[in-house]
Amino acid sequence: MSTFTHQCSAVEPVDILFVEDNPHDVTLLRDAFESVVSDRETRLHAVVSGSDAMSFLCRSVESDSDSPPNFVLLDLNLPSYGGTEILEAITAVPQLRRLPIVVLSGSDDRSDIARCYEGYANAYLTKPSDLDEFISLVETIDRFWFTQATLPSASI
């Protein structure tokens, strides 16, 4: 069984699953990571639907060669299988329960925010609209989640 790393060092690659149905937002996030994170390899795996996200995550748990991503960025409003359903599905898989998940949404509706935290999201952030805002978001994510925070081990 694979485990999540604790703090990510400069030599360890970071795997991020980005669940987003808007190709423009995927491009902006990729560009932001490329401009901000230069001291380590960052692999951004983008999927466009909740079912694709769960397939990706379940394959990573079942595989001997792959491991779950270090982090998930999750759009809330996805077609058919939305962000809150994905949160629910992830917490139902014991090997994924401690996976850090940040919801990235354009919604500032209090009920959306509450549902995400009730679904065990680690944070709820407003989705940026341009490259400069995405760069600021990536700088914050990199500094907090991959430099300062200690990520849980999946084997605990």
Automatic annotation (TrEMBL):
One record GO biological process: phosphorelay signal transduction system
Swiss-Prot/TrEMBL keywords: Phosphoprotein
Alphabetized PROSITE patterns for the sequence: RESPONSE_REGULATORY
Record's keyword annotation contains Phosphoprotein: yes
Span of domain Response regulatory: 15-142
4-aspartylphosphate: residues bearing it: D75
Matches recorded under CDD domains: REC_Rcp-like
Pfam families (UniProt xref): Response_reg
PANTHER family in alphabetical order: RESPONSE REGULATOR RCP1, RESPONSE REGULATOR RCP1-RELATED
Name this polypeptide is given: Response regulator receiver protein
UniProt lineage: Archaea, Methanobacteriati, Methanobacteriota, Stenosarchaea group, Halobacteria
